[in-house]
Predict the structure.
Amino acid sequence: MTVISRDDVQHLAQLSSLQLADDEVSNLVTDINDILGYIEQLGQLDTTGVDPTYQVTDLENIGRSDAVIDYGVSREQLLALAPAQQDNQVKVPKVL
Amino acid sequence: MTTISECIRQTSSARARVEAAFEKAAAHEHYHALLSLTKERALERADAVDRGDITGRLAGVPFVVKDNFLAFGAPTTAASKMLENFTAPLQATAVERLEAEGAICIGKANLDAFAHGGSTENSAFGPTLNAVDTTKVAGGSSGGSAVVTALDIVSFALGTDTGGSIRQPASFNGVVGVKPTYGTVSRYGVVAMASSTDTIGCFAHTTADAALIMDIMAGQDERDMTTLPNFFAPTTNVTAGQKIGLIRESMSDDVDSEVRARMNEYVAKLRAAGHTIDEVDLPMLTHSLAMYYIIVPAEVSSNLARYDGIRYGYRAEGVQTLAELYGKTRDQGFVTENKRRIMIGSFVLSSGYFDAYYLQAQKARTLLINAYNELFKNYDVLLSPVSPTPAFGLGENTADPIKMYLADIMTVPPSLAGLPAISVPAGVTAAGLPVGVQLIGPRKSDAALLALAGSLEDQA
């Protein structure tokens, strides 16, 4: 059985772009190990020669005409959603 | 309980209907079923209906949407701090189609944050209380939508169902809940959770109302390439002498005895109506939850990557580096269950574990689909409880994620296979808690399932 350590959880948090507090990490070590312990039962299932299913619609290669669609949303409206804007651009803190 | 046609008949003006809905909402505020009201816009639209400027099959009928549908007139929060102040610049196709028929959205319903959960206790803004017993959970993740319907604040409400999020709260509150065939309704403008099983459906008081709503929402949308050509045709014709399979694994001793008793009564009613019921085996049922909690977190981790604090939503203050900006924004903007799922998703997709977890789950999913296909060679409909128990107590399962996940064990298998499944009320326990029965059919049999359930409704 896979056992996830505190370091593993920190690594997963990093992969997930989550900067966790210390007490959160402790709780997640327990939770994630419990969840993995449960989902590992699938390993017992014989899936030799079985193809994976990625979607259930039976639809394939759905396209549409290559035309501009008016979504009724302006550049100003979209920019206004950003936490900060300046000069028609999304403003971010200086990080370099 | 006010059906859609009663709602239209009872009150002469749309304004009076909408105002009555707001009054009921205010009287039931302590259930915390609604996160926001769209008063100004709803009243404007009501007046337009009364002037005759807006017409349609739902002219002036108030409804509520789960707060993960983008809609005008109120923020779209997904019950998260991440989107607490997010005001949608566009509306979901489902909302647009209902509005085109004259329906009036009066508010946004509470949910588990980003629809992650089965009790609405994961809402960043506090839980919704069960409509029948306020010491119990509403179910989830569409708990608010189920409760506003059960409390008769509105005749119908919209929800999303990825693994049971409409069916389970419908059963916990005693209303009809529809999770359609995957691809029936466009998901454009709805906050994505797990793209391979996310569906849009509804809550209503009757199967006929649910069929009307699904009929209006169903159909292709070039803004959601997974939508199927419209196949949904409401009907009241019930094929005589249907063959129905009661899933044996769903009636084990682990399932609450009163839930099984209500199931057996429902089976007796189906028999009395001339249908044949056999017990059938679906051994894959027991593995489905493990599949689900690999596949869905994997998709969640991808879909929630967009919340980075840059373009919209919450942004953490006082950060020094880019990694810190992302990391703190996401840590503060998500609830614990969001983080659990994102991290499990990152784990099952990471190199070294991908084959053993994610790929194995997608292969197991094929076996589940094959098992359903075999059963549908001989049976028209499959039957199971919606949930192994009636509504559980507030706080009862919050400390144990696995226990919370187990409440979904009956509802996730049809989701993984893309099948239509509906939850219909099947009586109550001795304590008065509602029990729901789940009817599952082959893909695109949605209308037939509703008709079958509808044929038993009058005797309920």
